[in-house]
Every structure is written in C-alpha cells, then in structure tokens.
Write a structure and sequence with these properties.
Layout: H1 2-7, H2 12-15, E1 28-33, E2 37-48, E3 61-71, E4 75-83, E5 93-105, E6 108-117, H3 124-153, H4 170-186, H5 195-202
Antiparallel strand pairs: 1-2, 2-3, 3-4, 4-5, 5-6
Length: about 210
C-alpha cells in the first residue's frame, strides 16, 4: 500500500495541495521500468510555488519536477526540483529524498525517510519547518488515506481484486507484479520471469 502511494504521485495535488505539492493538476508524466525497478517522472509546468518550496524559491510560480524511483524490494529515491518557468533544472531548488520500507506483518510497515536540499542547508528553522510539514502529511494525509483504502479493499492484495487500471498506475502495478513474481520464485513456486516476460505481464504498461 505504501508503494502504491509513493509510486503514484498523481495523488499529491489533491492530498497535499499547496503544502508538499503545488496547487493544480496539469502534469506531464512518463514511466520507465526494468525487471527490478520502476520509475515515475512528473513535470507540473507554471504552477504556484508550494509551501515547502517558498523558503528556497521567491517567485510566485515555477515548474515543478518530481521523480520517484523504486528498486526491489522496498527502496525508493525521490528527486524534486522547483525552478523558474522554462528554466534548466540545475538552476532550481533541488531536494533529494530516500524512502525505505520494512514490513513488520501483513498490515504494518516501518517507514523511514531522509531528505537533503541544495539551498539554505544550514538553516535549522527551515529544517524544523520541513520536518513538521512532511510528518504532518504522512500522519494526517497519506496514512489515513492508505488505511481507508485497505479497509475498503478488505485486503492488501490489490491485484487479487482484478482492478481496472488507469493511466497513472504503471509504476505501482509493475512494483506489485515484480514483488509477487520474486516472492513466488523465492518460495520455489515458479522461476523468475525474464525481462521480456515481465513486460508482457504488464500489457498496456509495458
């Protein structure tokens, strides 16, 4: 469930509007994958500067870039950049984050995160403000949303429900299918799929 949340960042403009994410829903999205990775790449052009970026970017609008990159089994790297409209990313306010997940049981997962930035690096007040905003989002927005989804589904095994997939789902679906394949292989139930087989399993998401 946490992987679903992190690999489909299309939820951010709705769940974290104005705080972790700019207000607005127009975005350009691409997806990449290998046999053991999945990546979602987003660009939101000409959007209002969100609260998390205001200490580092003094313009009212800019281009917001986010990349989330998952590696088997539960390690994710995130790149965020807010820069002037149509300006190169290297000029922008850049943050890099790590998300690492350690399942405890079927319904509980330990979630560890860390973040860095390229501006105002020695400002303890900004450290505290960003930590507070991120922890608020995890505790009061992401967490309750994931718990509500699990209650509604009645299971954490989304694929067993034979869902209809949307255009925003490729990375989360790839991660679920890859983990399922590797778990079965580790248990001796089936051999690991080749890259071509894994792509064929994803159908429209290949």
């Amino acid at each position: 469930m946490v992987l679903d949340n992190l690999l489909d960042l299309s939820h951010a403009p709705y769940l974290h509007s104005g705080t972790l994410s700019p207000v607005g829903t127009r975005r350009e999205t691409t997806y990449e994958a290998t046999d053991a990775t999945a990546k979602s790449i987003y660009k939101m052009p000409s959007v209002p500067t969100p609260a998390t970026q205001r200490p580092f970017f003094d313009g009212p609008i800019g281009d917001f870039y986010t990349t989330i990159d998952w590696t088997v089994p539960t390690v994710l790297r995130q790149f965020l950049c807010f820069t002037g409209v149509d300006r190169p990313q290297e000029e922008g306010a850049i943050s890099r984050a790590a998300h690492t997940l350690t399942p405890q049981d079927e319904h509980t997962t330990h979630y560890f995160w860390a973040a860095s930035r390229n501006r105002q690096q020695d400002n303890a007040q900004i450290d505290a403000k960003i930590r507070s905003m991120v922890e608020y989002a995890f505790t009061n927005e992401d967490g309750p949303m994931m718990e509500a989804c699990e209650r509604y589904m009645g299971t954490t095994d989304l694929l067993s429900l034979k869902p209809a997939f949307l255009q925003v789902d490729p990375s989360a679906v790839r991660a679920r299918r890859t983990l399922s394949r590797l778990i079965k292989a580790e248990a001796g139930e089936s051999p690991p799929s080749t890259e071509s087989q894994a792509h064929a399993q994803d159908g429209q998401f290949a």
